Amino acid sequence: MDDPRYKTLAYYERLVLQIKREVVQGVRVPGDKLPSVRDMAKAVQLNPNTVAKAYKQLEAQGVIEVQPGRGTFIGAQTAATAEEKQRVRPAFEAAVVSAKAAGVTLNELQAWLNAQFEEGQA
Amino acid sequence: MKLTAQHLTKTIGEKKVLSQVEFSWQTGEIVGLVGRNGAGKTTLMRTLVDQYHADHGQVAIDDQDLTAVPEARQQLIYIDPTEVFFARLTLAKLGRLYALGYPTFDQARYRSLLADNDLVLAQRYGELSKGYQALVVMALNLASAVPLILLDEPFDGLDLFIREMIVKAVIDEVADGQRGFLIASHDLAELDGLADRVLFLKRGTISKTVTLEAVRDEAAKLQLVFPAMQIPAAVRQYGQILNVQGRVITALFSPYTAAVEAALTAEQPVLIEKLPLSLSDLFRSEYAEEVHHD
């Protein structure tokens, strides 16, 4: 939750990103059980409704799976659906436009992209 | 369960402390109550439980007017931390006393909450440190098993660990939707992630209600620098200036839409950067006009 890059986002979005990042880094692996909304809320000291909203978004995006009566689990990491890819594309395009407007070169952008990708795989 | 306050007005002496206060609050919700010193937060809490009789207006729980149906007040608890009548009582006696007022009071839970914090039933409330007194107040609130709980400055003067214990207790109680909290606090950082909504009390009335996650989604706090020394009209038109330091302008844009972004970009800013938006920023923007600069 403390990643400075996420500090301008709503708390539920920060939690979504944090969990995605933990999945990418292998801190949480498919099949891992996530804490209940109540326990996660206590752990990160956030309003339970905020945590529930984050879980709902993660579920809608296929990152986590709710198994009724058993709990919430990290989903099997299948390749992202075409739909999911379409969803993230506008944000990426907007970032590229802003970067170009700010005078960032293609080489610089590529370096950023590489660094960002490697972060998750280290 | 839902509490609704309508047109609440209270004059103390010559001063109209509350004027036409209206809000609602329900179980499953954590609602923050903020305002400057003397804005009327404690008076509002005392009026909600009829410790002060309102001059006008009404408080209802699920459409039961508390004046007409006083027993409905057993759904609501307020322990006034600054005016406790029970300083000389032992914690055991305190539990028996609250059980008289609240038929739902759970003695076993009260004892276990005290034991969790190494508190002994034979101790007198007034002999405890401030932190332990806060924990006893919380234990009474929780053991009463009341749906709607009012907390007045629950974090005031407490160390990090006791604050965390209280925050976790609030989260735990509210998580299954059976309880709700109304929390008056000057600790904006503590309320920031905790509250669903925050009521701003200003000159005795609720001047603004903010749903925090929605604001964080829609609004933006920006740091801006423009080539000209003058602040462009677009900044004042769409935003609220929080601070100006030389050429660096900090402003709040709510909502921050694509149109607002385009209007700002059209002024060719040298710098346009998003900053974290906190409850403190909203507080500053709401009360800025009340602060007199010399």
Automatic annotation (TrEMBL), chain A:
Residues 9-77 form the HTH gntR-type domain. It comes from the Bacteria. PROSITE patterns: HTH_GNTR. SUPFAM superfamilies: Winged helix' DNA-binding domain. It holds the Pfam family GntR. Coiled coil: none annotated. Keywords: DNA-binding, Transcription, Transcription regulation. This is GntR family transcriptional regulator. It comes from Lacticaseibacillus hegangensis.
UniProtKB/TrEMBL annotation, chain B:
It holds the Pfam family ABC_tran. Residues 3-228 form the ABC transporter domain. It comes from the Bacteria. Gene3D superfamilies: P-loop containing nucleotide triphosphate hydrolases. Keywords: ATP-binding, Nucleotide-binding. PROSITE patterns: ABC_TRANSPORTER_2 (PS50893). InterPro entries: AAA+_ATPase, ABC_transporter-like_ATP-bd, P-loop_NTPase. One of its GO terms (molecular function) is ATP binding. This is ATP-binding cassette domain-containing protein. It comes from Lacticaseibacillus hegangensis.
